[in-house]
């Protein structure tokens, strides 16, 4: 690994009662890259993701973003420091149009003063349209969010997550429940997103992550197993052993 590290964990452990779901995990994530966190069922992927995204703090260890220790920072502060996460369609207002959903998200990131000036409102409208273009929903701008197909709702959710122009985007299973066509559209979108920012995702679909990731982090039984490029991971004997018999 040669590039600048945007976020890292230092000896992160997470316990739930007497059970240790994550043990002493230290991982650095490179800036401007797409890194996927993989591992068999119960490996600790979601727990690790939740610690990175601030959903809950580690029992031990630290999370460092840039130079700042963000361990235990409340989730609502994350967008302000440049970290967004995309994992729930509940971020969307179903009875509002696609455009309104993005506009509301943009407004949430504007100061009141700026928002009411006619110039910034115009800017807001343009920005909303360009975000919709980015995620491939421009032609659905006037439709109600609830009328969109599942894959399109996830794309809208990503536009909402991008409204704060995050440096780091965290995605939990972005293609969950998607058809093959929707999965392929989402993969294209994720690759486009990485042109301007860092993306970390958790995903079960191995073929997908192998195809689009710059780097992979493999967890197993709550422990760090390996990190590297898709080729390095594909050829890693320990990883092969862990995935043997799985698909
Ligand atoms: N809130 C919790 N309370 C108790 N145990 C938990 C909790 N969250 C996770 N675990 C346990 O921690 C372990 C790791 O779970 P986690 O969901 O992080 O794994 P995962 O790799 O995301 O799994 P999957 O691929 O099945 O989604 C599992 O054994 C799980 O049962």
From TrEMBL:
Membrane spanning stretches:
none
| Signal peptide coordinates | none
Which keywords does this Swiss-Prot/TrEMBL entry list?
Answer: ATP-binding, Cell membrane, Membrane, Nucleotide-binding, Transport
Name one cellular component (GO) term: plasma membrane
Q: List the molecular function annotations (GO) for this entry.
A: ATP binding; ATP hydrolysis activity
Query: Where does the ABC transporter domain start and stop, copy by copy?
Result: 7-246
Record-linked PROSITE patterns: ABC_TRANSPORTER_1, ABC_TRANSPORTER_2
InterPro entries xref list:
AAA+_ATPase (IPR003593), ABC_AA/LPS_Transport (IPR051120), ABC_transporter-like_ATP-bd (IPR003439), ABC_transporter-like_CS (IPR017871), BCA_ABC_TP_C (IPR032823), P-loop_NTPase (IPR027417)
* Protein's UniProt name: ABC transporter ATP-binding protein
Q: Which organism is it from?
A: Noviherbaspirillum denitrificans
